[in-house]
Amino acid sequence: MNNFPNQYITDKEKDDKYHTSFIEAICGNVLTKAYQAEYAVMDESYKFFNNLQASADKFKHLTESDSGEAYPAVWFSINQIRSKLRVLVGELMQRGYDFEVKAINKEAKARKLLAMEETRVDMRLQNVAQQLEAYSGIPTAKRGYLPESEEELENYFKRDYRELAEVVIYYALKFLDKRNYWTVERKAAFLDLLIAGKCFVKNEVVNGMPVARRADPRDIFHDRYASDDLLRDSTYWGERRYMSLAEAAERYGLDVEELKKVHKQYVDWNKTEASQRNALSFSFAPTVAGLDWFKEQNGTIRVMVLEACWQDTKSIDQKVWVDKYGNEHRKRTRTQKSKSGEFEIEKKRIKIWRQGTLVGGTILKKWGIMPNQQKDNSLELLHEAEPPYVGLIPDYVDGVAVSIVDQIKSLQNLKDIFAYNMQNVVAVAGVPGFVYDVAQAPKDWEPEQVVYYLKKTGIAFINSKQNGTPAQFNQFQRIDLSLSQSVDKYLSLINWCDSQIDLISGINEARQGVVQGASQAVGVTRSALLQSNMTTAPLFGLFDIFCSRVWNQQARLVKMTWAKKAKYAPIIGDVGVNFLKEDVDLVDDFAIFVESTPKMLDDVAQFQQLIMTALNAGKLDFLQAMTLLKEKDVFIGIEKFRKMSEDAEEKAMQQQQQLMEQQEMMKQEGQQRMLEANQMSQQASLQNQQSLQQMKGQQAVQQELLSQRGEFLKETIDGAE
Fold this sequence. Notes:
The chain is of the alpha+beta class. Among the domains are: 428-532, no CATH class; 610-721. Helices cover 50% and strands 15% of the residues. The chain is built from 19 helices and 14 strands. The chain has helices at residues 16-30, 33-49, 60-63, 81-95, 106-136, 150-160, 164-179, 182-195, 245-252, 256-271, 404-427, 447-457, 486-505, 522-561, 572-575, 599-602, 604-616, 622-629, 634-720; strands spanning 97-103, 199-206, 209-215, 220-222, 236-244, 294-297, 300-322, 328-332, 344-359, 363-369, 389-392, 432-434, 478-480, 590-596. The longest helix is centred in the last third of the chain and has 87 residues, at 634-720. The protein is elongated and about 210 Å long.
């Protein structure tokens, strides 16, 4: 066991020699005989899954006699491990998954509470705003979705409300999910969990984009003193792999001739006595773990590359201030002091990760502080930093990982032995018969004649007194050289092995959809299925947590790579805003939860059936239905349907508003016409009155004239007389 270098030295002292010593110390603590044994166990489990387990050479004591002669049987394996594990993988693929994105820093929570209060005010004023809009015609009512009760308001902000940054992160993760084929990586990691009992994923930035890469458990090493199933307290991680000299030279900027020179030095080092080895600069060799820095494979020299990272600390400056609500905030800063006294500067040691890559045991590359370290910049967790590796080892006790395959491969070997012995029984089997004393055959009969009549008549003729004295021997003593009960016994033993494999793996016939017979009770099948599901439920639950940790790190890498957000342009249409033109900053800290979804929501066929139902009910028009039917991602389709529904609701509200405005205009026009009619009626009445008065005046004048004329005539007549 190698001692680790002193970490409590200055950053300037942590040079290339320091990093080389740390990597060698990690290798010395991990690459031991225990690692070699664990590697052999995992490698054998992968061979069992691929049906490449050891051939008959491992069981020569069963397949050959003491003289070395082979028995009349062929060694083969009735391996069901692969089919059983594929049942669980199929269930994983059917479960589906989706992301839930939550901003968890104080600023984001404060903004969400403020938005909730604004929505509550809009709820209380909505009726008044609608009445005012109806009376004045000015749009004052709130558009879009508005909760109708306090309970609905709380549920909306708890489940459905999303800020723009949360929406951007959600669709960025969906984009990375498809771009990096996470479905394939997820399936491979789950298979690792079943076969090796552990699974690992490395999160890194490749060509400016976050990538989650499944890592082979046989090549990963970690702190063996880690305490929990997720290895969250592992203080170092590493990954080893063999490369060709050309590949290593290209990846790490080396010269092939330089690597060949190191290879020659290593060969000489192995031939040198231990007391003189240090002169050749190989201070550590992984030979105790069955490994070498260089090995020849199919005539090609391959070099072992070790990538390692480990925890370290660093002193930084933090500015500390208190907002108007009395909440304390901390952020990393390069400012030495506050000019206005608004905040204080505190020094604090934070956790960081250092890295180094050792090629061929002597060449150090990519060493120093690890880039793209994942931190929550606006929480109290500034002192925390996460490694690029995410791991899961269920039931991790005493540093031992036990897989499903590892538990059942011994039973598989026993089952193969039973099958081989059954072959031997079949190979030497004859037919049923009986003992016949040819001395008592009828006179002048040959054995062939006896067999002939036996086949034709079914009667065996004998002459028991042929020699004078009746024979006391039972002529018809039966002998059985056929399979008889031997095969049945071996078949029952094979079935016993299968039942034990079912109990250990949790994948029984009910889980595989095998029905024993029509007479089997439904309750028995359901009970067996429930038992099977309960056995494997912890694996699925822990794997969901494992995936959540992977995507939490992916979200942090999205924040780091957001400066080159042109790479995320494919998600513009999904987000609903062109963030390349608008200012969208991802400064919040996010918690990502990977949730398993019901099978119905992940079934495209059922989703399409629901679309057709909505089309027939008139909830969608033909063009909208065709748009949704082309969508292969059910969750994206649901979001599109929700947006279509909101647009339709807003359009309906606009149409209702227009109808109300038209009705108001018609009402006002009717009132105006009535007013004009009343005015015209009044004017007509006044004119009639004036005309009548005028007519009355004219009649009075005429009567006066007639009266005066009469008086004049009377006076004239009286004067004439």
